[in-house]
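User: I'm putting together a teaching handout on how multi-component assemblies are represented. Below are the sequence lines for each component of a complex, exactly as they appear in our records. Could you produce the 3D structure of the whole assembly as structure tokens, so the students can see both representations side by side? Please keep the chain order the same as the input.
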Amino acid sequence: MGKSMAGHLLKAGHRLHVYTRTKEKARDLLTDGAVWEDAPGSLAARCDLVITIVGMPSDVEQVYFEEGGLLANLRKGTVLIDMTTSSPELAGRIADAAKKKGGAALDAPVSGGDKGAREAGLSIMVGGDRHVYDEVLPVFKLMGRNIVYQGPAGSGQSCKMCNQVVIASTMLGVCEAMAYAKKSGLDPHTVLESISAGAAGSWALSNLAPRMIEGDFDPGFYVKHFIKDMGIASESAEKMDLDLPGLALSLKSYRELAAKGDGDLGTQALAKMYGVGPSK
Amino acid sequence: MGKSMAGHLLKAGHRLHVYTRTKEKARDLLTDGAVWEDAPGSLAARCDLVITIVGMPSDVEQVYFEEGGLLANLRKGTVLIDMTTSSPELAGRIADAAKKKGGAALDAPVSGGDKGAREAGLSIMVGGDRHVYDEVLPVFKLMGRNIVYQGPAGSGQSCKMCNQVVIASTMLGVCEAMAYAKKSGLDPHTVLESISAGAAGSWALSNLAPRMIEGDFDPGFYVKHFIKDMGIASESAEKMDLDLPGLALSLKSYRELAAKGDGDLGTQALAKMYGVGPSK
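Assistant: Of course. Below is the structure of the complete assembly, with chains in the same order as your input.
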């Protein structure tokens, strides 16, 4: 996703400096004129705006807080934007640290996946100071279509958590209905014809249920990444003393799925836990 | 719903005989030319086609199987259609009994609610013999827009159960996300702006979450009716030896809601269990 997103900035005429752990992944960008940097810290020292999108909150922690990282080397006035789906609490700590160094930070996780990144059609949920958001909005517009300011630091991440919390239980409903259809001897395609357009309708039902039926478990969004996101939401809910039993149930089922070795499949593979898929 | 649906048949020029437990509810239809019958059995003895839509499976059982009921008085060749959301197993028993009497029966539950019934826009899911379905299809077309033949007797009910099973867990996801948004101090409307159009999107999120936020718990679809439907799905799943933990969790939460006296609210009132609604 990072490569597609950076490509849009380059195409728009921005001078782009890049760092990735695996330099090979940046090759096309470098061919197109991006400048290589050997460490995150060099980016923070040289650029007006630094955008990160990495894997886990622990990766974010490292890139921002390690010795050669972004915060230790931050140039005054530079804006840091983390677009990783990460924890609201960590986003808050980064924003505080950036301010202390005379810079600023936004949390701006996205939804829309690889396709959204390629087509500059991401939904971007932004937390941080409003005036910083207003300043960098033109850059967000190069990468996304639905860009919404959600509130102070961490609010972008909290909004993304809401997104994942909805999906968590919705996936249970879709899988359970497909399992019920199969057990009842119904044609699941015919069931979808009846139920997709009404009160049961959802993006997941329209887009993922057909793939469940066909046994197509290729990743649009990885099981392992969804587990990461639900884990963050779950911990954060617990800290807020908020009981989310649907989220807990979904996370438990997905962890069982991953324990069977299916973490690299798409989230629709949850259907396997219910015996849904093409009949052998 | 029955009144609107019968009205469409009358307007299309069909000769309509009616029976309801509360005669008053049929007054407008009688004014418009419908003929009153004193018992379900009289309808079965006099009409080519009898359509029922009542409350609980126990009501269906009574209307079909009691002494003055439909089956005991069924005229040869008459088609019985039950449009109540009821159990697949009961639909199968009705179809068997109708055949033995030289008639036929279809199960044809609907989704789309009062509005769908008024606007002849219902989704109708039909189970029974295909040739009987083909024969009465013009009548279904007077009441609905999305009419799908689902398979042998009981399949219409099974399909409707799939619909309710999807909704059951989807509602958990929507409520939990709105609760997370509130606890995080986000503006829930702004959250919906970010998440409604993407992978978290659903009919429930777009239509019911805004009502949860406003504390508008007026019934589109009653909590008590949803509990009935989920109860049927749950029993039927158990008979098929199918474990549906999302459905079980949702049913448990809705039963707790009803136990607090909220059975006559709309299904979006589940949000109350999560403390969602306008801040006082």
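A couple of points students might notice: The domain at 2-152 of chain B is CATH 3.40.50.720 (Rossmann fold). Chain B has two domains: 2-152, 158-274.
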